[in-house]
Amino acid sequence: MSTDLMTAQFADTRVLQAIELIWHEAALLDAKDYQAWDALWTEGGRYVIPIDPDTDDFDGSLNMVNDDTRMRRMRIERLTSGYSMSALAAARTVRTVSRFTVEERTEDSVTVRSAQILVGFKRDDQQTLAADVTHRIRYTESGPRLDLKVIRLVNSQAAVNASGYLL
């Protein structure tokens, strides 16, 4: 990508708002503020962690996670209820999100790809996860909202331990 094209993409204030929202999302997830994280989403927004790193057919393929609004809220309930193994001694996390590229811009949305490195610490064990992440940010009357988040873990086809946190 040429420097001029990259500069033009980042001159779009919607792209900068999208990146700010993605960084805000990362901070909320590290703070385990799942209710505030849920408020960032559009109604019907999807949170997906596919096993096949090349698929875009999330409904027709196997996924670790493929949540619509209802399933995302059920997942949050499990993580915050204290009644599931994932909620007990929840992992502490620190994530870095960088390498932003704009995949698509429409009248009401921006799709951004990025790299995420997440370090989780739970029960004296530290785990590092790396992923390519795609966020589609939709611009609504109430501001930018997450409409799609696809986390393509680099080790998605290997055994991935239950983490006790959201990616």
Automatic annotation (TrEMBL):
**Pfam families recorded for this chain?**
Ring_hydroxyl_B
Kindly indicate whether the keyword Oxidoreductase belongs to this entry.
Answer: yes
Q: Identify the InterPro entries for this entry.
A: NTF2-like_dom_sf, Rng_hydr_dOase-bsu
GO molecular function terms listed in the Swiss-Prot or TrEMBL record:
oxidoreductase activity
Record key words, sorted: Oxidoreductase
* Protein's name according to its UniProt entry: Uncharacterized protein
- What family does the entry list? Belongs to the bacterial ring-hydroxylating dioxygenase beta subunit family.
Instruction: Tell me the GO BP annotations in alphabetical order.
Output: 3-phenylpropionate catabolic process
